[in-house]
Design a protein that fits this description.
198 residues; alpha/beta; 6 helices; globular
């Protein structure tokens, strides 16, 4: 069966709930791309970059300083206070949480409010430094019908992140089949120069 290209689709991200699993440079770039489009973002990672920490302090994103668990994406199975307090205690004992991490019920109830009516996020970005974990996240999302992007594997991804160009009310998204990032950068530079000369 022939492999088709991805269709470029523009739609509103206003109030869409996006869970980003991972807190490194890739996650930071994804977050910065989405910030101006009205998405509600939650980052799940025991550690994050300084920029993500700053965005969390500014309440531009929510940071859950924990190692990923499937329960983060599905309140149906693990939202009650007892299970979460138990999980939090286990994580704290293993030194996965920072001392400032919120271990009470509020963080989980607040997290559940970020899920859609079916109990899942609208989108998930698997951006950890562990390719196997990213794959497991993608498999879980596909099983639950959650659109997912795996930063480690395009075959696992339901959508790509294009290179974005914004100018005077216009939004351009440039992408390839994932095989030629240099060509994407070159095309973006040409578009920027063209816009600057108008």
């Amino acid at each position: 069966m022939a492999q088709h290209d991805y269709f470029p689709l523009f739609f509103s991200m206003e109030n869409k709930n996006i869970f980003i699993i991972g807190g490194g440079r890739v996650a930071e770039r994804r977050i910065q791309s989405l910030l101006e489009f009205g998405a509600e973002m939650t980052v799940v990672s025991p550690e994050v970059t300084e920029k993500i920490r700053q965005l969390s302090d500014e309440q531009a994103v929510r940071w859950i300083p924990q190692c990923y668990r499937e329960a983060h994406l599905c309140h149906e199975t693990d939202l009650n206070q007892e299970a979460h307090l138990s999980s939090a205690a286990d994580l704290k004992q293993e030194a996965y949480l920072s001392p400032a991490a919120d271990l009470n019920q509020e963080v989980y109830l607040s997290q559940a409010a970020d899920l859609n009516r079916e109990g899942y996020p609208d989108f998930v970005l698997a951006c950890t430094g562990d390719a196997m974990l990213n794959h497991k996240i993608a498999l879980f999302c596909k099983e639950k019908g959650i659109p997912v992007n795996n930063a480690s594997c395009k075959e696992d991804s339901d959508f790509y992140f294009p290179a974005l160009i914004r100018h005077d009310g216009l939004v351009f998204g440039v992408s390839s089949d994932g095989s030629d990032h240099k060509k994407v950068r070159s095309v973006c530079e040409k578009i920027r120069r063209l816009l600057q000369n108008k």
